[in-house]
């Protein structure tokens, strides 16, 4: 792969990683998921030449899905604690609501990254084939 193309791919991945972290931080502020600031401060990106690894504390997913205390895998979907009468009787207040800062934006952004990287790698593949054909033609002469 040509150094210029490899650099272009790396710059694109680096830029995408930074953009996603900015978008996510802005969304968690907009949704009010900032009690301690721990989630906001936990974002980090680790882009390399071929991929982007985004990290954040796992409770951010629970905030996005609106789950937490009382939501257990083994309850079989019977979430009796969501019943308004049960909540009133046990003084539980309002149930949690989804604050989906994560999934929709990630999915669409990953698709954008996927298309852009496909174009960049396709261009690189065409150049590789053309170089191989030029080399083969030179060897035949």
Mean pLDDT: 79
Beta strand count: 2
Strand order across the largest sheet: 1-2
Distance between the ends? 26 Å
Put simply, the count of helices is: 5
Order of helices and strands: HHEEHHH
Give the proportion of residues in helices.
55-70%
What percent strand? 5-15%
Structure write-up:
This protein has 141 residues and is mostly helical. It has one domain (3-140). The chain has five helices and two strands; from the N terminus they run ααββααα. The protein has a two-stranded antiparallel sheet. Helix 1 packs antiparallel against helix 5. The longest helix has 38 residues, at 103-140. The protein is elongated, with a radius of gyration of 24 Å. It starts with a helix and ends with a helix. 7% of the residues are buried.
Q: In a few lines, what is going on in this structure?
A:
This protein is mainly α. Helices cover 59% and strands 6% of the residues.
Task: Furnish the topology, listing elements before pairings.
Elements: H1 3-30, H2 38-41, E1 44-47, E2 52-55, H3 59-65, H4 84-89, H5 103-140
Antiparallel strand pairs: 1-2
Helix pairs in contact: 1-5
